[in-house]
Amino acid sequence: IRDRDARGRDACSDPQTVVPEGVRYAIDAPDTVIAGQPFTMDVKRVDIVTGQLVTSDDRNFTLTAFSGIAPRPDFALDPAGVLADTVGTTVGGIRTFNTQSYDRAENIYLRVADTSGEQAYGDVIVVLPAPPAVLELWAEDLPGQVLDRPLRPDETVTLHVRATDDVGNPVQSTDMTIEVVDGDATLGSAKRVTYTLTADVVGRASIDMTVLEYGIRDVRLQAVAGDLVSPVILIEIIGPPVTTLSLAPNGSEFRDGYYVTPNTEISLAATTEDPGGIQAIFVDVDVTDPPRPVSVYTGPFSLTDLGPEFAEPGLHTLRFYAEESSGVVEDVKTVVLYTARDMDTN
Question: Model confidence over 198-231: pLDDT tens digits?
């Protein structure tokens, strides 16, 4: 403090310490940021009346993030994410964070506090997810249970695809396409090989996948969202049983069947990868109704065994298929037998 007397001479006092009164913390931060990406924010010491910066009351402080939409102490909910910078010191009344970040997409607010017990809360910050960076595709046998077994014909499972950003935040409203790259399966009730879905609030979309009725080829699937592509997943398919026909003596192949004689022995044999094995082989000759054979094959037979009318020269239609103990059946196979009269050696 300087004092001047009547003669114009100055006198100065010793330095005086001015202790500020009515100073508080203020947080200046964006109202919307992107998860995992840096943003700039300030912590200030300001006058409670004018809001002006107070440069003579610097403090060490800590920053804490809380989940919620109301910046009040009684709503101090633990956050799901991590705040990058949590400590600082004001210099000249301000501390600027140029690389502050928060890694989870949610609404948060910040609290600044020091060891004296003084604290203040900032306004709500909306943390949005970053653009999708990871695309996951998987199949579930039961809800919550990842498919870990082969599928059978006509069997249905649920496919899930999920889009997240670099730090795992779900990205909603993303268009994602699931594609059957290869194999015997279709998607949804429309039985398509590609299907476009929109991610929900948790970044996920789901659709059923059904193996074809007589599917045998393993299925490869992939999801695409813009330029983002998921890894290909492989689902093994165990196809239906397979029945083979043998003729003794060997028949001569002709068109869609064989040349045989009425006494040619016809044998059927079926194989399957199912542990339960084959339940039965069904067979008929020259039957059109019902559409599937109903007579059980019991062993080798010839056309003569079926009756004199089958021994006449001409053609006959042989149908057969096998059924597993599991109930899975193969498609009906049809073979035309072109018959000739047996040679009379007498």
Answer: 999 999 999 999 999 999 999 999 999 999 999 9
**Closest Cα partner for 226 from 196, 265, 268?**
196
Is residue 60 within 8 A of residue 80, CB to CB? The reply is no
Whole-model pTM: value is 0.72
C-alpha neighbours within 13 Å on the C-beta side of residue 292: 11
Instruction: State CA 84 to chain mean position distance.
Output: 30
**How does DSSP classify residue 306?**
H
Residue 275 binned pLDDT confidence (cut-offs 50, 70, 90): confident
Residue at token pair 């196979």: 333
Q: Can you tell me the distance from the alpha carbon of 297 to that of 280, in angstroms, rounded to the nearest whole number?
A: 7
Question: Which two three-digit tokens encode residue 112?
Answer: 């600044």
The CB-side HSE value for 202 (13 A sphere, CA atoms) comes to 6
Residue % of the chain over a pLDDT of 90? 68
Could you tell me the CA-to-CA distances from 323 to 85, 89, 243, 276 in Å, in that order?
A: 67, 79, 10, 11
> 328: burial class by Cβ within 10 Å (0-12, 13-18, 19+)?
buried
The two three-digit tokens of residue 165, written as one number? 């950003």
Q: Is the pLDDT confidence value at 330 over 90?
A: yes
Mean per-residue pLDDT for 267-285?
94
